Structure formats: C-alpha cells, structure tokens
Amino acid sequence: MADVRLTGVRKAFGDTTVLDGVDLTVADGEFVVVVGPSGCGKSTLLRVIAGLEAPGAGSVAIGGAVVDHLPPAERGIAMVFQSYALYPHMSVRANLEFALRMQRLPRAEIRAAVDAAAATLDLTDLLDRRPAVLSGGQRQRVAIGRAIVRKPRVFLFDEPLSNLDAALRVRMRYEFAALHRALGATMLYVTHDQVEAMTLADRIVVLNQGRIEQVGTPQQLYDRPATRFVAGFIGTPR
Ligand code: ADP
Ligand code: MG
C-alpha cells in the first residue's frame, strides 16, 4: 500500500506562507491532479512530499508510515519535473541505467529493469540514441523512464508536459493514462491545464494561496464547484 497522507502541512519561506494547513489523502493507486494558479504552492506541496522541503508544521505519511525523518531517497518516491535534465553525452539506455547504478543492483537486473521500462514507454528502438537527436516527447518519455526503473511506490509529476507543444501534450496525456493503468502506482500530478486535469484525474485538488479549495472527482467539481474560484478554474458558470 502506498497511500499518501498529509496532515496539517504548513510551509513558509520567510514571512510568506506558501502551504497553509494542507490535509489530503491520496489513496493507493489513485491518480490525483493538483491544479491552481501560478505561485499557489503546487510545486512546494510535491517537494514536501518528496522530502526536498521540510514542512514547518504537520506531517507526511506514505503507506501508513510517517516519513518526516526520511531523506528523499528512502521515501520510495520518484519525481519528474518540467525541465528534465538528461545526460547529453549518454545514450538513452545509459541515462536509464544511471538511475539504478546507485542501488548497486546486479547488471542483469539493471538491464531487465531498463528493458521493461523502455517497453512500457515505447523507447526500445531509441535505447542507443543520444538525447540530442530525440524529439521533446521522446525526451520526456526518457525522463519518465528514469523514474519508472526505480519502481517507486509513488510518482510525483510537476507540470511534466508544459514544455511540449499542444499536439504533443494531447498525445502524452494518453500516455500518462496508459502508464497509470500499466503500473497501478499512486500518482500526484501538477498541471495548470484544465483539460489535462479533467481527463487524467481520479480526483482533482484545487489549491489556492496554499489552501485546498476543493477536492473531488472531475464530475463533482464540474457539477458542484464549492466556490467561485473553483468554478472559474474548472471553467463552469456559477
Ligand atoms: P506553484 O508551483 O504553484 O507555481 P510554488 O510552490 O513554486 O508555486 O511557489 C509558491 C510560492 O513560494 C511562490 O510565491 C514562490 O515564490 C515561493 N517559493 C517557492 N520556493 C521558494 C524558496 N525556495 N524560497 C523562497 N520562496 C519560495
Ligand atoms: Mg510550480
């Protein structure tokens, strides 16, 4: 089980409160999309879950166990950012293997994990290429592949498609849905694209100035937005 539970999470940078008491439970295997305007705390929320930022108050639990004391590498989490830095001098295969090298796994096991991730992401034919010759979508798939090979319990995606053009974003949207079905992992996905949120999410979290405005299925938010802000964000008249 890899449910994610945030309890009373607060985070401030200096005088600026960025997360203002966030309570949220993401079920094991659930795909939750976090939406909200720029600067509302979406990235900080993911970084707190990943252990890249320590909350000023509150707690994070994964799989029923509090992880506040654990460094990022021991949380069973993989995070994919919008700016995915691949190693330019390494092949796709080497980029994927690199993610596993620290774990000192047997060579055959590393190869098998990379082959499986490549098959899942349709990268098998690209394994010998360098990132420079790949398209934006292919590079993004390699970045996701680096997350998959480590077999995390939880995936955190921070606007993973925002650097891609519109047509590619639509295609990649289907790939994320397929990936979620294939892996059955718990996923938290940040975007400011409503359509992406509505099509991918089991549930959507609407964040505003560090507070959760509403959590619900796309249908619930569309039919019954709790506030004018949610209605505006989801694009329904109210
Ligand atoms: P979002 O991802 O929703 O755009 P962020 O979580 O990145 O928002 O940022 C929320 C607020 O916190 C912003 O005002 C941002 O400037 C501020 N912030 C984020 N990280 C830091 C940091 N390391 N130091 C100071 N301020 C930060
Ligand atoms: Mg952000």
Provide a descriptive summary of the structure in words.
There is one protein chain. The chain has helices at 42-50, 92-101, 107-120, 136-148, 166-183, 194-200, 218-223, 228-234, and strands at 4-13, 16-26, 31-35, 57-62, 65-66, 77-80, 154-158, 186-190, 203-208, 211-216. The chain has 238 residues and is of the alpha/beta class. The strands form 2 sheets. Strands 6-7-8-3-9-10 form a 6-stranded mixed β-sheet, with helices on both faces. α2 (92-101) packs parallel to α4. The model has no long low-confidence stretch (mean pLDDT 92). The structure holds adenosine-5'-diphosphate and magnesium ion. Magnesium ion binds next to α1. Adenosine-5'-diphosphate is lined by residues 13, 18, 36, 38-44.
Sequence-ordered SSE layout with sheet pairings:
Layout: E1 4-13, E2 16-26, E3 31-35, H1 42-50, E4 57-62, E5 65-66, E6 77-80, H2 92-101, H3 107-120, H4 136-148, E7 154-158, H5 166-183, E8 186-190, H6 194-200, E9 203-208, E10 211-216, H7 218-223, H8 228-234
Parallel strand pairs: 3-8, 3-9, 6-7, 7-8
Antiparallel strand pairs: 1-2, 1-4, 4-5, 9-10
Helix pairs in contact: 2-4
The structure holds adenosine-5'-diphosphate (ADP) and magnesium ion.
Protein name: Multiple sugar transport system ATP-binding protein
Family: Belongs to the ABC transporter superfamily.
GO molecular function: ABC-type transporter activity; ATP binding; ATP hydrolysis activity
